[in-house]
Amino acid sequence: MMSESRTTVALFATCINDVMFPDTPKATVLLLERLGCRVEFPEAQSCCGQMFTNTGYYKEALGSVRSFVTAFAGYDYIVSPSPSCLGSVREQHPMLAEWAGDKGLWREVEAVVARSYELTEFLVDVLGLTDVGAYFPHKVTYHPTCHSLRVAKIGDRPQRLLRQVKGLTLVPLPDAEQCCGFGGTFSLKNPDVSTSMAAEKARNVTSTGAEYLVTDNPCRLNIGGVLARSKSGIKTIHLAEVLAETEGGAR
Amino acid sequence: MGKAEIFAAIRAALADVREPDPAADVAVPWEYGQATAVEDVVGLFAERVEDYKATVLRAASADAVGDLVAQALAEHGAGSVAVPAGVPEAWYAAAERAGVAIRRDDPPLTNAELNETAAVLTAAAVGWAETGTIALDHRADQGRRALTLVPDLHVCVIEAAQIVTDVPEAMARLQASLNDRQPITWISGPSATSDIELSRVEGVHGPRTLIVIVVG
Amino acid sequence: MTATDLGMPGSSRRTPAPPAGRLIDSPPFPVAAKQYLADSQLRANLHHATSTIRAKRARVTAELPNWEQLRLAGEAVKDRVARHLDYYLEELEQNLTANGAHVHWAADAAEANQIVVDLVRAKGVDEVVKVKSMVTQEIELNEALEAAGIAAWETDLAELIVQLGHDRPSHILVPAIHRNRAEVREIFLREMKLYGRAAPDSLDDEPRHLAAAARQHLRDKFLRAKVGISGANFMVAETGTLVVVESEGNGRMCLTLPETLISVTGIEKVIPTAADLEVFLQLLPRSSTGERMNPYTSMWSGVRPGDGPQEVHVVLVDNGRSRVLADPIGRKALRCIRCSACMNICPVYERVGGHAYGSVYPGPIGAILTPQLRGTAAAIDRSLPFASTLCGACAEVCPVRIPIPDLLVHLRHRVVDERKRSHLGLEQALMKGGGWVMASGPRFGLLERAGGLVQRVTGREAVGPLPWPASLWTRARDLPLPPEQTFRQWWRANRDPLCHPERSEGSLRDDEATTVTSVTSASAEAAAE
């Protein structure tokens, strides 16, 4: 349980959430506050730089690495609702600092990375919770993103949290661990393959009969785009938004 | 040209490697030659060999081998069998009495003769349970490699004491044969292919039927 | 009996001609991928084959409680070899020579091919039988032999299908994975009679019967062959032993029956000791065919009097490997033991097949190996590092733990850096500008406001089909427009301690919870529209 003095959490909202999916970081703030944390949003933060790194633009990504360590240097708990962006911080920021030959930056990055948590890791491992008091009376299916499984390696924490949500029915997604085909700039550089993969993922989602697809936002943009185009009627939502819902909510 | 050029390129490429001793430079986190936990080694061996659609026969003692060989050859209609020089006569005496032509590989049979021979009878060097594999090290009781390759039926006799748990233990037993520069053949079931639609077919170029007789 | 003997009009070839053109001239990956994606038969064949083999691999790797330790050991042995390659190659050469084998060194494909052609000519024969070998495909040995008037017969069933089909392999383990049984039957009926024993007229498309036809067709060739050509999966430095892992017995035929054996291998195939085989001969079969063990593994140490070929040659080929070795990050690709698990699990490979990769090494491993071996001068080679979503499934199954996604990113960086030096394109300009914005939170905050404007101006929350380049995204998906208020703006309005000192008490106002909920619902509904 929480100690007397409240835990202060620095929120890494991520650029895609900030602009495209602001409800996700908002829900993260409300959820963490509900669980007794004090949430801060260091305004110096921008982006994990993943789009630059993964497209081969290391130099262009370095600014993001520096802004990340500047923004989050003073915090004990850095929490992000995006496993993909957090995975990039963990795996790619040290590599970029090393590539730049900047030992000082590398040490700063290592220090910040050690204090960085994906939201479900923070809830389950730090706060020791799987039941966060959420209420979401809907049938949902969950797509574990590739980066959550294989980069951030958050395991089954999201499913453990979802199973404790009151009113929620979690139905399995066929071929859940298959990539949805987003891949950042892959979706633009190899649009035909990307589209084919997204279509298959959307078909699998539709086959579950769920009302909501719960997934991280980059993949949500991709799969949700196909679901919307096909008029499937299936809504997409981020895990943080599900966990932020309570019985008093108006859904 | 050739070697000097390649070695110069390799040495230039490895300028970042400072430690000259390979073992000190990169440690291998592995303990070699360990047995794995298998309760019934011979039982699992028999089960796994049969998983490959091979046949396993059990001989209570060495005396029973001859009859099992004769029976196996008869069941497959094999009228001739190649035998390496070191195979005990007792193993094929019953078959010979039953009219099977015994073709000793001494002098060596030609490829054409081998191609006209229905079966081959050999001992084995080692077998192991986990993967259901037999290894031949081609000493006198197993013969040269072509013998166990060209005929369509391979009858292989292995003693229970020759069966170990898994690959690491087997490799340890095979080390002496490798030190002697013996060729080695590992056999796991009859020849097979999955090249057409990943659909497994037993029997392509090597023996299409494998019968293993476990003694003891 | 050959095409020439039969007096085939307009053909002086001994073996079926492969498709015209060089692999390195293949179109960039996205162009080829689009073409192969449209082939629904190919898609079906690939989906069936890769999902079957994936399931088998998953089952047999889960059987071993020490699978992860095996992977770590495999990785370490391969890293040790790579970092001391000169040491182990010296040891290998000494032992091979002591065992009576002749060792040859080839810096590139042309040298390797010349060595083999000369060796075969010296035996005075005009045909050889071959065991499936990736490196001989890489150096295009068959065509070099053909040009010298020597027929090279592929004896692996899938390689035979590919050769008789005037085709190229599309997978390193199952080269004819793109063909179904009906196509194989057609090829056998049409081609076998031109190059040897004909397929029986009654041949149907049962895999068992097709395999039997191959057995019949090849048996004469095996029995009369004077020279066999192989690769090697492993070469043991300590004992001078070569190892070939196979299933059908065609390998044993080629390694055992001919008088002369020529083995062509990449220099990275050496391993230190025979004991190391206990690691790799567990990793390889379970990762590749998804079996506990492959049917046949052959080990031979030079010449064995009275048993097998009495003249043994080993041709050690560099052909770009020392260049790969020079990059401490890129050299991890040299750990590869050619199991094919990465391509079987790859959702991109599964959709487009191996031919789209323009290399004998397709799939994820090809995407990191080919641009390193061949360099990045060709369009196909520059496009390969981008032929992945970086989903990471390949790295998870790799038996020697090659961090394929990291290497893909590393090579993307190499390609981008080379391009930066030659010209400044739109992508570079966008990335440069983006990098500048993202280096600063406040700068990013300023730019964000423009996003909200779009929605205010258009009054829409999502858009359908748009012109290029947005069409790359919107031809199949809707694109939501950014909501009017960014998170940063919401924070300032609701949480910024300068504007809301009461927040430091941490009280939660009920109306805020309602606000978030209603906003969430609205955007979810918009996306569903």
How does this model look, in words?
The complex is a heterotrimer of chains A (251), B (216) and C (529). Chain A is α/β, with parallel strands linked by helices. Chain A folds into two domains: 8-126, Rossmann fold, CATH 3.40.50; 139-244, Rossmann fold, CATH 3.40.50. Chain A is 50% helix and 11% strand. In chain A, the strands form two sheets. A four-stranded parallel β-sheet of chain A has the order 2-1-3-4, with helices on both faces. In chain A, strands 6-5-7-8 form a four-stranded parallel β-sheet, with helices on both faces. In chain A, helix 4 crosses helix 5, helix 5 (83-99) packs antiparallel against helix 6 (103-113) and helix 11 (191-207) packs across helix 12 (217-229). The relative contact order of chain A is 0.14. The model of chain A has no long low-confidence stretch (mean pLDDT 95). Chain B has one domain: Rossmann fold, CATH 3.40.50.10420. Chain B contains seven helices and twelve strands. Chain B has helices at residues 3-13, 22-25, 41-51, 65-75, 89-97, 111-115, 167-179; strands spanning 55-59, 80-83, 101-104, 119-122, 126-128, 133-136, 153-159, 163-164, 184-187, 192-193, 201-202, 209-215. In chain B, the strands form three sheets. Chain B has a six-stranded parallel β-sheet with strand order 1-12-7-4-2-3, sandwiched between helices. A four-stranded mixed β-sheet of chain B has the order 8-5-6-9, sandwiched between helices. The longest helix of chain B has 13 residues, at 167-179. Chain C is of the alpha/beta class and 529 residues long. Among the domains of chain C are: 39-322, NagB/RpiA/CoA transferase-like (Rossmann fold, 3-Layer(aba) Sandwich); 448-528, no CATH class. In chain C, 51% of the residues lie in helices and 10% in strands. A six-stranded parallel β-sheet of chain C has the order 1-10-7-4-2-3, sandwiched between helices. A four-stranded mixed β-sheet of chain C has the order 8-5-6-9. A two-stranded antiparallel ribbon of chain C has the order 11-12. Chains in contact: A-C, B-C. At the B-C interface, helix 1, helix 2, helix 6, helix 7 and strand 9 of B face helix 2, helix 3, helix 4, strand 1 and helix 8 of C. Strand 9 (184-187) of chain B pairs antiparallel with strand 9 (296-300) of chain C.
